[in-house]
Amino acid sequence: xxxxxxxxxxxxxxxxxxxxxxxxxxxxxxxxxxxxxxxxxxxxxxxxxxxxxxxxxxxxxxxxxxxxxxxxxxxxxxxxxxxxxxxxxxxxxxxxxxxxxxxxxxxxxxxxxxxxxxxxxxxxxxxxxxxxxxxxxxxxxxxxxxxxxxxxxxxxxxxxxxxxxxxxxxxxxxxxxxxxxxxxxxxxxx
Length: 190
Prior knowledge:
The chain is of the alpha+beta class. It has six helices and six strands; from the N terminus they run βααβαβαββαβα. Helix 5 packs parallel to helix 6 (181-187). It is globular.
């Protein structure tokens, strides 16, 4: 799928047709994207957490089993956006320890709060994280969702848009982490 730089990708909600096997690059920070997809569509991926980063693995396991509560993502700030979306649709909670994420590709705390709001979900930024009420249901954004040149925001927004539809601005930025992400994601509705 060829998307010009600065272009956008329009996704419509779809019925899930999960293939028997999906290969995800061996980067632990991509596992929460699969977890979010599974929660949204009621599927069950058999995705293991790649070894090599025990702090990231611990954070992923913690958000995967949350029924509300607090999770410190100081050593796993790459998963703030999908973790916040997961927490919003699940039991809610608080992400802490990520003050430094305000200086990532974007202010990942503020931009994640904004992206969730685009999908009709509430959250509140704190000094070092995000407070997220649980039990929320995403809705189709009323306007294009800005990614602010942040690949983690773009990927999280695209996964949410698979469920409710939406237009994602500058989606190709996700190639920084996963060059095949858009193609793999859009193949799931075939």
